[in-house]
Amino acid sequence: QVQLQESGPGLVKPSETLSLTCTVSGGSISSYYWSWIRQPPGKGLEWIGYIYYSGSTNYNPSLKSRVTISVDTSKNQFSLKLSSVTAADTAVYYCARHRLAARLHYMDVWGKGTTVTVSS
Amino acid sequence: DIQMTQSPSSLSASVGDRVTITCQASQDISNYLNWYQQKPGKAPKLLIYDASNLETGVPSRFSGSGSGTDFTFTISSLQPEDIATYYCQQYDNLPPGLYTFGQGTKLEIK
C-alpha cells in the first residue's frame, strides 16, 4: 500500500522560499507522476503541478513563475519549492500520486497534508 | 481557461436521502471529470474517476454520470459517515494540461 508523507518547515517568512518534501513508501516512485496540491484555510483545492519520475514537469500557469518541483528517485522523494511567498501562500500542502494516461487524469493516493504559514 | 461551476455550495439532507451534486464545465471536457470526498482535517479521497468509474473500495451508493459539459455525482442513500465536502476536478487537455477543482459542496445531515 503506497503511502505519502509531506515534511518541511511549518513557518516561512514573507519573500522567502517555501520548501517541502514528499516521501513515498510502500512502493516505487518510478513509472508514476506525482503532484502537489494546496488548500488555503477554509477554501478549496488548487493543483500546483506534477513531476514524472524521469523529471519532466507541468505547472499551474498561475504559479509557474515561482514553482519548482524536483524528484530524487534514489530516496523515493519528490520536492516542492515556491519562491517569493506571501500570506496568500498560507495553506495546507498535499502531495499525491497522479495517475496520468490516455483517459486517466486524477490523484488517487494522497498524503495527510502539512500546514505552512507565511508570516514574519 | 475552462471554468467549473459546482452546485450547490452547501446541502443539508437526511440519512437515507438521495443526494445529487452537479458540476458544469464552460466547454467540452469529454469525460475528464473526477469526484473527491474530503472530511474535516483530512486529505481528499478519490471516489469517482473518468466521470463514472467507481474507485476500488468505494461503496456502491456513490456514483457519477455525465460527459461533455454537465456532470452529476449521486449518493443513493445518505449515510452519517458521508458528511464531508465533495469536490469535482476537471482536466483541461489543452497542452500542457491543467487540473482545476470545483468550489466544493459541503454536505451536512439534517
Structure characterization notes:
The complex is a heterodimer of chains A (120) and B (110). In chain A, strands 2, 4, 5, 6, 9, 10 and 11 form a seven-stranded mixed beta sheet that branches. A four-stranded antiparallel beta sheet of chain A has the order 1-3-8-7, with no helix packed on it. Chain A has strands at residues 3-7, 11-12, 18-25, 33-39, 46-52, 57-59, 67-72, 77-82, 91-100, 105-110, 114-118. Chain A is 0% helix and 54% strand. Chain B has strands at 4-7, 10-13, 19-25, 33-38, 45-49, 53-54, 62-67, 70-75, 84-92, 98-101, 105-109. Chain B has 110 residues and is mainly β. The model of chain B has no long low-confidence stretch (mean pLDDT 96). In chain B, strand 7 (62-67) and strand 8 (70-75) form a beta hairpin. Classes of the chains: A mainly beta (120), B mainly beta (110). Chain A binds chain B through residues 35, 37, 44-47, 58, 60-61, 94, 99, 103-108, 110-113, and chain B through 31-32, 34, 36, 42-46, 49-50, 55, 87, 89, 91, 96-104.
Short description:
The complex is a heterodimer of chains A (120) and B (110). Chain A is an all-beta fold and 120 residues long.
Q: On the 0-100 scale, what is the average pLDDT of chain B?
A: 96
Net shape of chain A = globular
The number of helical elements of chain B comes to: 0
Ends distance of chain A: 39 Å
Number of strands of chain B: 11
Structural class of chain B: mainly beta
Number of separate helices of chain A: 0
Largest sheet of chain B: 7 strands, mixed
| Portion in strands of chain B | over 45%
Query: Quaternary status of these chains?
Result: heterodimer
* Helix/strand order of chain A: EEEEEEEEEEE
Main interface by residue count: A-B, 21 and 24 residues
> What is the residue-mean pLDDT of chain A, rounded to a whole number?
96
Ends distance of chain B: 37 Å
Radius of gyration of chain A equals 14 Å
- Helix content percent band of chain A: under 10%
Number of strands of chain A: 11
Structural class of chain A, please?
mainly beta
Radius of gyration of chain B: 13 Å
